[in-house]
Write a structure and sequence with these properties.
20 helices; two-stranded antiparallel ribbon; alpha+beta
């Protein structure tokens, strides 16, 4: 049997900034930048306000800020509210069949701020958490979504604990305890997609990572075979029922999965399962100058697991619409874009939008593409015109913004500024972007301009 718990902990505890491949550092930096941007944009949403109102401010010097208000909170509470904010718009990046940055970044910023960590340690912590998550995912041939588990909340708890253990410089034994503690805090259900609770998954998971590392640092213990034991994490959460505990490959620290799989930045604030189809639909709309009256039917061919996530055929709220292929196609056709302005209750319930839902026909395949996403090999979209003519878009394998089709630095900055200038003056937002772009050179996370208490003249 593989000694998964101890071996992964040894990697996390021993990871140094100098060990990191350049592609890992690049991906971590992109993930942190994108997550901070959407976190600031999401901070004013109702779910975030509800969670924030329940948290008492801290008077301790080792607290961390609620972003972007700057209110001082205990670090676990800061991770909670900032994690909800990072995920509430569903605009945060995607990888490993989940959302790694939305749990790693709030945990790292909260614990790193509390510890006065530097930027290089923050990047190393991100890589440590991602690599642990990716290694564990490689040992499971099934897909957590199919069993009803949200990977962000399940795998993410262990990843956030690993990141915080790395920030606290725990030794391998205490790091193993931190990971094992987090294994009992991992939970989140796909059935809650399209509700406020999905964003709570991210916040609670980030909080769990901070708590697990702090408990382990104080001598709190857990089972040091919790990942591989027959009643442990991998078997308990296994959709296949056959995790590779006996014959899997344990190569964390030799096979850098972050360099290979990277981070997929979202261009649309909807479930990533819609993004390839949105790219295709927007392509058809632009190429053929389509208007809603031209189209009698929209045909989408996608994956079974994608459709499982997209549970809302007739959404009535902005939250529900994030998990609806019907909405994604309607917004692309009617608004000629799918942005934050379209993800409102008012737009979703417009009569022309609702009428377009009925035009969407989805078919699925159970084929799955290689890699870390449980998606079909491609998404295919065609439209039927009132004349009977059928217009087809070429199959889309990778969405724009993916690791395979990345945004340029300026495109990434454009999204960041679009998100952050809802709160900050443009100069403030631009300065923060540049700080994060050079994060490894930052001597203290406390110097980052994450809060609105510093205003531009």
């Amino acid at each position: 049997m593989l000694n998964i718990t101890r071996e992964t902990a040894k990697f996390v505890a021993g990871l140094r900034p100098a060990d990191l491949p350049d592609r890992c550092k690049e991906a971590a930096r992109i993930g942190i930048i994108d997550c901070v941007g959407v976190m600031i944009a999401g901070a004013a949403e109702q779910p975030v306000r509800i969670v924030s109102a329940m948290l008492a401010p801290s008077t301790q010097n080792d607290g961390a800020p609620e972003i972007p208000s700057g209110r001082n909170l205990a670090a676990p509470d800061a991770a909670l509210v900032n994690g909800v904010a990072a995920h509430v718009l569903d605009y945060d990046d995607v990888a490993l069949a989940g959302h790694p940055s939305t749990v790693l970044v709030p945990a790292i910023l909260a614990e790193g701020w509390s510890l006065d960590s530097d930027g290089a340690d923050a990047v190393a912590a991100y890589v440590a958490g991602y690599e642990l998550w990716a290694q564990l995912a490689d040992l499971e041939p099934g897909h957590l979504h199919e069993r009803g588990f949200h990977p962000t909340a399940v795998m993410g708890a262990l990843a956030a604990a690993a990141a915080c253990a790395r920030l606290r410089r725990l030794d391998p034994e205490k790091t193993a305890h931190a990971i094992a503690i987090a294994a009992s805090l991992a939970s989140g259900l796909v059935a809650n997609f399209g509700t406020m609770t999905k964003s709570l998954h991210a916040g609670r998971t980030a909080q769990s990572g901070v708590l697990a590392a702090r408990l382990a640092d104080q001598g709190f213990t857990a089972s040091l075979d919790v990942l591989e034991h027959r009643t442990g994490f991998l078997r308990a959460h296994s959709p296949s029922g056959a995790p590779k505990i006996e014959d899997g490959t344990l190569d964390i620290g030799r096979h850098w999965r972050l360099a290979e799989l990277g981070i997929n930045v979202k261009r649309y604030p909807t479930c990533y399962a819609t993004h390839r189809s949105i790219d295709a639909m927007l392509g058809l709309v632009e190429q053929h100058k389509l208007n809603p009256n031209d189209v009698t039917e929209i045909r989408v061919h996608t994956g079974v697991t994608q459709k499982l996530m997209l549970r809302n055929n007739n959404p009535q709220t902005g939250l529900e619409a994030k998990f609806s292929m019907e909405f994604a196609m309607a917004a692309a056709l009617i608004a000629r874009r799918v942005g934050l302005a379209e993800l409102t209750d008012e737009f979703v319930t417009r009569s022309d939008v609702g009428a377009t839902f009925a035009k969407v026909r989805c078919t699925t395949t159970d084929e799955i593409m290689p890699g870390d996403q449980p998606f079909a090999p491609s998404d295919q979209v065609s439209v039927v015109l009132a004349s009977g003519e059928v217009l087809k878009h070429a199959p889309v394998v990778h969405a724009k913004g993916s690791w395979q089709k990345p945004l340029t630095r300026e495109e990434l900055k454009g999204k960041f500024l679009d998100c952050t200038t809802r709160v900050f003056a443009r100069a403030h937002a631009s300065d923060l972007f540049e700080q994060l772009w050079r994060l490894e050179e930052v001597g203290s996370l406390r110097s980052l301009r994450l809060t609105s208490d510093r205003t531009d003249a």
